[in-house]
From TrEMBL:
Annotated localization: Cell membrane
NCBIfam families with a match to the protein in the record: LptG_lptG
Lineage top rank: taxon: Bacteria
Protein name: LPS export ABC transporter permease LptG
Length: 366
């Protein structure tokens, strides 16, 4: 019987159903409260754009809620674990199950199975919903909650380096040789980094090399005079097509497959990708953290309730769960600047706390 993790079908369904209901309830409570607080801080910014109204507020909620679900689902599983096991312990149901011959692992098995389904659903939800919502919301925020460009290849607030010089534009549309910049500003700088000339224009096309400004306005810093160019002017001649095609990658707005292609492209261009590789691995390890929560919160479900230590056990379980998230974020931060290899940064906290949870469970209950 000790090797049978699901000795009773009825008990498995009972525990799994109880656990799932609490996960949904806790998640709904957290998302509702946090969404209200977030909306209070964003409403003024959204309504500041002329024409925005109640429908735009609902649009913001629809884009923000998936992000909140992604972020707080593991916390919900942790809190649901503590509520479920503490309730079972308080009502002596854990004692009854152990008296029937069930081990601590057998009691936790239905919770772990439910958490595995939650992890799988979380991964699918992140890939299909959260990435799209994040990309749309960030594009909307970049235009200060105004009109989002229809072209999916349009990039906002871009800049390119040409030696000491800097080329900036409000918007980049098109790909390759067909790329077009609007709202262009080019800064010529000397070796000391001081700006010597500022060249502006409403539109620039890729001249390969450089960018061709049709209506350039030149401001000379030394003479403090501004003049209009009499003919089209080419700026940033050191800009290459690879700089145009490469973009700033937002791992939260890309699926696992898209992020893989972005990492390969950046590697081919000689860019550093340690942070993105850590994020790639975290797209897998992050949802799987839901499976750790029943193990880390299990300490709340065992021990005699009448001993008076139930609350202390619940606090310990909560502390273990939150410690995991702290260590996970710290490891990802260290991995982002090369302190850890990306694979280690994403998976070391998971393995460490899995072993820690197993150790606590075995030594105290098995």
């Amino acid at each position: 019987m000790l090797l049978d993790f699901f000795p009773s079908r009825r008990l498995t369904i009972y525990l799994a159903k109880m656990f799932a209901v609490r996960i949904v309830a806790v998640l709904a409570m957290l998302v509702l409260v946090l969404m209200m607080l977030d909306l209070l801080s964003r409403t003024a910014d959204i309504l500041a754009f002329e024409g925005n109204g109640e429908s735009e507020l609902f649009t913001y909620v629809s884009l923000r809620v998936p992000q909140l679900i992604q972020r707080f689902l593991p916390y919900s599983v942790l809190l649901a674990t503590i509520l479920t096991l503490a309730g079972l312990n308080q009502n002596s149901e854990v004692v009854a199950m152990k008296a029937a011959g069930l081990s601590a692992h057998q009691i936790l098995a239905p919770l772990l199975l439910t958490a595995a389904f939650v992890a799988l659903a979380s991964f699918s939800f992140n890939e299909r919903v959260v990435t799209r919502a994040t990309a749309t919301l960030k594009a909307w925020e970049n235009v200060e909650y105004g009109v989002v460009p229809v072209d999916p290849d349009t990039r906002l607030n871009v800049y390119f380096n040409d030696g000491n010089d800097v080329l900036m534009a409000r918007e980049l549309s098109g790909l390759g040789d067909d790329a077009v910049l609007t709202g262009v500003t080019f800064y010529e700088r000397d070796d000391a980094g001081m700006i010597t000339r500022q060249i502006t224009g409403s539109r620039a096309t890729f001249a390969n090399p450089g960018w061709l400004l049709d209506d350039a306005q030149v401001f000379d810093v030394v003479t403090a005079q501004s003049t209009a160019a009499t003919e089209p002017l080419v700026v940033a001649p050191g800009t290459t097509i690879s700089q145009v095609e490469l973009r700033k990658v937002d791992p939260d707005a890309e699926t696992l497959a898209q992020l893989s292609r972005s990492i390969d492209a950046l590697k081919a261009a000689g860019r550093r990708t340690a942070e993105l590789e850590g994020k790639w691995w975290h797209k897998i390890s992050g949802p799987l953290s839901a499976m750790l929560m029943p193990l880390l919160g299990a300490v709340a479900g065992f021990g005699l309730a009448r001993s008076g230590h139930l609350f202390a056990r619940a606090v310990i379980g909560m502390a273990l769960g939150f410690a995991y998230f702290v260590v996970e974020n710290a490891a990802l931060a260290l991995g982002s600047f090369g302190g850890y290899p990306p694979l280690l940064a994403a998976w070391a906290p998971f393995i460490l706390f899995f072993l820690l949870g197993e150790t606590v469970l075995v030594r105290t209950e098995e």
